[in-house]
Amino acid sequence: MLTETSNVEVLGVEKQARPYPHSAYYIGSGKAKSLAQLAKNKQANVIIFDDNLTPSQDRNLSKITNLKIIDRTQLILDIFAQHAKTRQSKLQVELAQLQYNLSRLKGKWPHLSRIEGGIGFRGPGERQLEVDRRRINDRISLLKSKLKFVEKTTEIKRKKRRNLFSVGIVGYTNAGKTTILNKLTSSNIYTANKLFVTLDTTTKGKKLSSNDKIVISDTIGFIRKLPPYLISSFHATLQEVINADLLLHVIDISHPKLYEYMETVFTTLKIIGAEDNNMLLVLNKIDLLPKYQFLFMKKKLKMDFPNSVFVSAKSGENFEDIEKGIIKVLSKGKRKINLKIPNSEQKLISFLHNNTEILHKRYNNNFTRFHIRLPYTLYSQKFDLLRKYEIKTKRMAKRQELNPYK
Q: Please, which residues have CB within 8 angstroms of residue 210's CB and are 6 or more apart in sequence?
C-alpha cells in the first residue's frame, strides 16, 4: 500500500525468513545477489525494503545490486513530501528528511578540501562530508526554530477555544478519520483511499443535540514502524491529540490486521503521552463486511472493548452512535440543576436553550421551571446569575455540601 500510494509499480515481492537481520546486508549475502539478478531480469530500477536499514546496510546493498535502495522510512518520507501542502507540514517533512539523511551522508569527495588563502586560513581545510554535515545541522536548527514559532501560534489558537470540549480523531492511516470528520461536521475536506492523505490538523466546530459546543480535530494517521523522526518533527501537529478531552480511535473493522493496527495506535499514543486520554473506539467500514461476519466481530469486540460503536462513515449507518458516545463522556463532567426563572427573563431563557441540555421544563403564568444539565465550566462562569434562580432540593444541597463547586 505504501508503494502504491507513492505511485511506484511493484514488479515482484521477495521474502526471507531469518532468525535476525544480517549485519552487513539485512538479508543474507547470497539472497542479496539473487535479489540483484531478479531485479535485473524484471528491469527494476529500485529495491524497497519493508523495514528500516542501517546506513552501512544501505551502502552494501547498493554496491552489490547496483540499484537505488529505499527502506521503509525513506518511502514514508517520500509520501509525506508528496502530500505536504501547508507551510507547517512542509517544514515538518523537511526536518524529518534532514534528520534521517544526516547519518547517511557518504564521503563521495574524500580528496576534496576547502582551502582558503591568507594568514590564519591555511591548512587541510574541511572535507566535503564535514561541510555537508555542518550545513544540514544548521538547516535543522533553523527548521526547529521556525516550527517553535508555528507551535506558539497554534497554542494561541488553542487557548482561544480552551473552554470548549475538544475531540481528537486518531487511528491507523486510511481508517476513514477524515470521512468521519466530514460527516460529523458537514465539511468537505479532501479524502482518498490512500495512506497519509492528511498531514495537517484540521479543526472544526460542532453543536451537539445536547446543545454542547465542541471542537473536533482530524490529525495525521499512524502506521506500524512509524519513524521516530516523524514523531518528533510532527510534535506541533500531535499536540491536538495530547490535549484532547476525548479521542475517537477510528478502526477499519474490515481489515485482516485489525488487532495489530489497534496495538500500533495504542503504542504510538503511549509514545506521545496521550495513552490516558478518554477514548471512544469507532469501528468503521461495517458496510464492507457480510452480515454474519459483522455480527460475529461485533460480539467479540464488544466483549474486549465495551466502550465502542460500530458505524459506516460512507453510508452513515449507526452514525448517531458517535454523537451519543461523545455526549455520554461529556455528561460525566456536567452538573444538573433546577431553575425557576421569571418569564420576563427571556435573555436568560434563550441562553439556556442555546447552551445547555434541557432535561425537563414546565411553564406556568409567571415562571418557567427548568431541569438542566450544563458543564461545570459554564456553571462557574454564570454562577452568580444561576444561583439567583437555582432551586436546591435536599438531595442536591447535601451533594453540594460534600463536593462544593464555585
A: 327, 330, 331, 357, 373
Kind plus residue range of the DSSP H or E element containing 375 = strand 367-375
How much is the pTM?
0.73
3 state SS of 173 = coil
Mean pLDDT of the chain: 83
Q: Domains of the chain, with CATH numbers?
A: 2-70 (no CATH), 161-330 (3.40.50.300), 333-402 (3.30.70)
Contact 362, 243 (CB under 8 A): no
CB atoms within 10 A of CB 276: 8
Q: Which residues of 84-123 are buried (b: 16+ CB within 10 A; e: fewer)?
A: beeebbebbbbbbbbbbebeeeeeeeeeeeeeeeeeeeee
User: End-to-end distance of the chain based on CA atoms, in angstroms?
Assistant: 54
- Distance between CA atoms of residues 310 and 318, nearest Å: 7
Could you tell me the pLDDT band of residue 2, with boundaries at 50, 70 and 90? confident
What is the C-alpha to C-alpha distance for residues 142 and 337, in angstroms, rounded to an integer? 54
Residue type, position 376, single letter: Y
